[in-house]
């Protein structure tokens, strides 16, 4: 998730949030994961602040948690693991936003994509929106405010006519989305692909 997109989300009870940094082959570099005693509460592709949460500090002092996050994420980026299966702490999302994210997480697995409009329909939270395209646009905004990037795979949500956006204007966003979809076999590797054999 790019910086500054958690406005209006519930941050209560996250005093125990600590951070694990995991090196990745992504064009954006390492990822940061905010963990609590409940699970991973935040994940970001950038070192910038995450909607007012200071990314990168304090570091996670629970070696078991840090090792689990590092091992699973590293295995995903080397195509040795298709699901991360980490416990999630959903406190940074609520209401329809959480419902859409949970629908995405449970229904769209490795190597699959879904359009913004299809996710809107499948989530069942937009029946009252009648304006054409409104639900799909709202889902796009929700993906830009996903506090659990990678773990809740917003990179698998695409436009009806192509790749779609990623990161709400974040400069490296489209390259990161393309890299992840190539890793998962949705897109064919290009000559400059620097990921593992898939």
TrEMBL record:
The keyword DNA repair applies. Residues 98-186 form the Methylated-DNA-[protein]-cysteine S-methyltransferase DNA binding domain. PROSITE patterns: MGMT. Its EC number is 2.1.1.63. Belongs to the MGMT family. Pfam families: DNA_binding_1. The keyword DNA repair applies. It comes from Kitasatospora terrestris. InterPro entries: MethylDNA_cys_MeTrfase_AS, MethylDNA_cys_MeTrfase_DNA-bd, MethylDNA_cys_MeTrfase_DNAb, WH-like_DNA-bd_sf. It catalyses: a 6-O-methyl-2'-deoxyguanosine in DNA + L-cysteinyl-[protein] = S-methyl-L-cysteinyl-[protein] + a 2'-deoxyguanosine in DNA; a 4-O-methyl-thymidine in DNA + L-cysteinyl-[protein] = a thymidine in DNA + S-methyl-L-cysteinyl-[protein]. Involved in the cellular defense against the biological effects of O6-methylguanine (O6-MeG) and O4-methylthymine (O4-MeT) in DNA. Repairs the methylated nucleobase in DNA by stoichiometrically transferring the methyl group to a cysteine residue in the enzyme. This is a suicide reaction: the enzyme is irreversibly inactivated. Keywords: DNA damage, DNA repair, Methyltransferase, Transferase. PANTHER family: METHYLATED-DNA--PROTEIN-CYSTEINE METHYLTRANSFERASE (PTHR46460:SF1). It comes from the Bacteria. It is an enzyme of class 2 (transferase). This is Methylated-DNA--protein-cysteine methyltransferase.
């Amino acid at each position: 998730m790019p910086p500054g997109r958690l406005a209006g989300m519930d941050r209560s009870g996250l005093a125990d949030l600590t951070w694990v940094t995991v090196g990745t082959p992504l064009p954006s570099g390492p990822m940061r994961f905010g963990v609590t005693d409940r699970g991973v509460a935040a994940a970001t592709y950038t070192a910038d602040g995450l909607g007012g949460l200071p990314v990168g500090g304090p570091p996670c002092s629970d070696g078991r948690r840090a090792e689990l996050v590092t091992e699973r994420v590293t295995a995903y980026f080397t195509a040795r693991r298709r699901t991360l299966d980490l416990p999630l702490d959903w406190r940074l999302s609520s209401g329809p936003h959480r419902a859409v994210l949970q629908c995405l997480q449970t229904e769209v697995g490795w190597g699959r994509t879904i359009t913004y409009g299809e996710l809107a329909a499948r989530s069942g939270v937009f029946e009252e929106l009648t304006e054409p395209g409104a639900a799909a646009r709202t889902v796009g905004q929700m993906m830009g405010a996903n506090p659990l990037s990678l773990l809740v795979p917003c990179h698998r949500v695409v436009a009806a006519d192509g790749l779609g956006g990623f990161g709400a204007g974040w400069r490296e966003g489209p390259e990161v989305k393309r890299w992840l979809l190539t890793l998962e076999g949705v897109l064919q590797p290009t000559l400059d692909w620097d990921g593992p054999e898939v």
